[in-house]
Design a protein that fits this description.
Elements: E1 2-9, E2 26-27, E3 30-31, H1 32-40, E4 47-52, H2 56-61, E5 69-73, H3 80-85, E6 95-101, H4 109-119, E7 124-130, E8 139-142, E9 148-152, H5 159-162, E10 166-175, H6 176-182, H7 199-206, E11 211-216, H8 227-247, E12 251-252, E13 258-266, E14 271-272, E15 276-284, E16 289-290, E17 295-297, E18 300-301, E19 306-307, E20 312-314, E21 317-318, E22 323-324, E23 329-331, E24 335-336, E25 341-349, E26 352-353, E27 358-366, E28 368-370, E29 375-376, E30 381-383, E31 393-395, E32 400-401, E33 406-408, E34 411-413, E35 418-419, E36 424-425, E37 434-435, E38 446-447, E39 450-451
Parallel strand pairs: 1-4, 1-6, 4-5, 7-11, 12-14, 13-15, 14-16, 15-17, 15-18, 16-19, 17-20, 18-21, 19-22, 20-23, 21-24, 22-25, 23-25, 24-26, 25-27, 26-28, 27-29, 28-31, 29-32, 30-33, 31-34, 32-35, 33-36, 35-37
Antiparallel strand pairs: 2-3, 6-10, 7-10, 8-9, 38-39
Amino acid sequence: MNIDFIILAAGKGTRMGGDSPKVLMHLAGKPMLQHLIDTVDTFPKAKTSIIVGYKFKEVISGVASRKKLNFFKQTKPLGTAHAVKQAFPALRANSISIVLYGDVPSVTKKTLNKLFNKASQGKLSLLTFNKEDPTGYGRIVRGPRSTVERIVEHKDATNKEKEIEEVNSGILAIKTTDLKRLLPKIKNKNASKEYYLTDLIEIARRESIDVSATVCSEYEVGGANNKKELHDLERAYQKRKAESLLTKGVSIADTSRIDIRGNAQIQKDTFIDINSILEGENKIGRNVHIGPNCHIINSTIKDNTIIFSNTVIEDCEVGRNCKLGPFSRIRGGTELIDGSELGNFVEANRSKVGKGSKAKHLTYLGDARLGEKVNVGAGTITCNYDGKSKHKTIIEDGTFIGSNSSLVAPIKLGEGSYTGAGSVITKNVPKGKLAVARGKQVNLNKKNNLCVGL
């Protein structure tokens, strides 16, 4: 049987503050709604309908999917049942409809499968959770066979019912044929004049449809209605991510001071110090040491490499046994081959650093290709931009660049060549030659302790 997901994402989120739609608020680096889409995308035969309203164009453009998404606009906020009804044109007869909420991003595939399986038996399947302080939540009242008899709102509950800790999450699954048949029976006889999806439970029981409840963790159904709740959701998400890495043999200095904003594949015996951020798609090998305050984005770092503190790595590949930092920045597809080193205040952009090559201090490498065992002295700059175009600097194996050299691209330094400290190199340097290009030193007499003639 197929699955039709219906995600409610029409709300403004007034309590969240700001002008952006609530479902586009970021959790771990991407919109809450995107987390949910990524989860439902893992169901091969599923179709997804998203109900939008407030700033609907911004919501539509703010998310993406590997599959086609059906968007339906709820022109007036007339309640959750009314929102679900907007998706009716896209729902298939031979499917299970699962209703989700765009600001409840952490529900898992495993839990959704449980809902689907119960709904496939002809039941209305609710997702519930236990809350230590259930004040304000609708209580789940179960019957003798553990089926759900009703949901009692807090204000209407008896003292005994208020002791119930199992509460409703709002997420449910039901056969699409039953949903289309029962939903129109929901009335708006309430103070808000809205059509509430929770009324479906009472209607289902009147129609002799069993109502079952699947209990999940509170974390899975945690939502965010304001910035405080969003902060708490972020910290809970990050804690679970960090603890998952610990179980795989990764060492983390402090699980409350690491952020993983994307997918991080990290091998065992790697150590991550405090305040590090892993963003996007990252692959980190075994026995890697990542120092404090590092930011790694969409990169690969291979075994036994050391990343010293305050280093930024973006869209790069770092080989085995390399050293980076402190205060290094590499980006733009830069590649470090095994055993290479970039040290204090070194930046590399769109460059390749060969095996065993080193630039350990105060250097900029832009559009540079370094061979093996190149040594770049402190203060060296590859001058790759002429005001209109970028040009390449080629430095072949075994070359020694003297400190404070400026290499004006396009330029090539041959194998085993040298540059004198302080040189501005504008022409190619042949293999094995020493290039010196600087003003001649003049020693002047002093008068009254001041230099004259300058």
